[in-house]
Amino acid sequence: MYITHIASYIPATVVGNEHFSQLNGLSDEWILSRTGIRERRKASPTENTNTLALSALALGLEGLPFPASEIDLIVGGTYTPYDTIHTLAHAAQNYLKISDIPVVSISTACSSFLNVMEVVQGYFAMNKATKALVLVSDHNTAYSDERDTIGGHLWGDAATAVFVTKERLKDTDWEVLDIITAGAGTVGKAVDGVFLRPNTEGFKMNAGKDVFLNACQYMAKVTTDILKKNGYTIEQLAYFAPHQANWRITKNVAENLGLPEEKALSNIQYLGNTGCAGCSVALWENKHRFKPNDLVAVTVFGGGYSYGSMLLKC
């Protein structure tokens, strides 16, 4: 299958580290040294997970290489839903006015983008769809507590619309060579290392060190695995687009893989942790850099310790 078009929406409001210095005493230097974040984007009071996704969709419809009416599958991913019944995928269907097609939303924490792509892969394999709209959107700031000195300063908001086709439509389409996903929910502190329990404790990261160590381990391993499975080496990888959780994690994984830092795509410095949208935003931001036949590995790790990698050929 192929990614034929991609667009992201980034909210306008910028929240710098000085906000948290004033709020809870965390200095710019402290936040920067531990996360790499200087600023993040925050949705406006009139925006939510669904509207973020629809804004990305509206941008994506510009330049779409086929009529939107031909979309025959919509799959959404988020762990910060605005509505758990009328999901972001249903909102997109209503926006597009396309009836009688499969509409699915799933959540595997920050790994949701790859699992959403895998769902599309399955529908294509079963000949149940040929042109899919993928939406990933997280409204982290709606759930996070900015006063939380452990994780309140991490989060940003963003959304991406990805248009995926079973067959190649144009020479510049990105081929999805392979997707590997899995869960490591039985290791470490996967159960409560990071969680979002809206009715009780809210958004918490109680075991940052355990999350960090397992993210570094599994992201390096699954990237190596997908390259080896498809007959490629690390040296042949043009770019690495990891989940945008922490610049220290990105650096650590790149070092473990033997990749120079310039091959690691990163936006956490100015967007914060935008959840399952982060690595797709990085693809959108850097699409102009990709050359024909470039290999790009998109690798994720999420709360609950889900993880995975997708290998693209540009």
Number of helices: 9
What is the N-to-C succession of helices and strands? EEHHEHEHEHEEEEEHEHHHEE
Shape: globular
CATH architecture of the largest domain: 3-Layer(aba) Sandwich
CATH class of the largest domain: Alpha Beta
The number of distinct β-strands equals 13
Secondary structure topology:
Blueprint: E1 2-9, E2 13-16, H1 17-24, H2 28-35, E3 39-42, H3 49-61, E4 73-77, H4 88-96, E5 103-106, H5 112-125, E6 131-139, E7 157-165, E8 174-183, E9 194-197, E10 202-205, H6 208-229, E11 237-242, H7 247-257, H8 268-271, H9 278-286, E12 295-301, E13 306-313
Parallel strand pairs: 4-5, 4-6, 11-12
Antiparallel strand pairs: 1-7, 1-8, 2-3, 6-7, 8-13, 9-10, 12-13
How would you describe the overall organization of this protein?
By secondary structure, this protein is of the alpha+beta class. It has two domains: 2-165, 3-Layer(aba) Sandwich (Peroxisomal Thiolase, Chain A, domain 1), CATH 3.40.47.10; 174-313, Thiolase/Chalcone synthase (Peroxisomal Thiolase, Chain A, domain 1), CATH 3.40.47.10. 31% of the residues lie in helices and 26% in strands. It has nine helices and 13 strands. The strands form three sheets. Strands 5-4-6-7-1-8-13-12-11 form a nine-stranded mixed sheet, with helices on both faces. A two-stranded antiparallel ribbon has the order 2-3. Strand 9 and strand 10 form a beta hairpin. The chain is globular, with a radius of gyration of 18 Å.
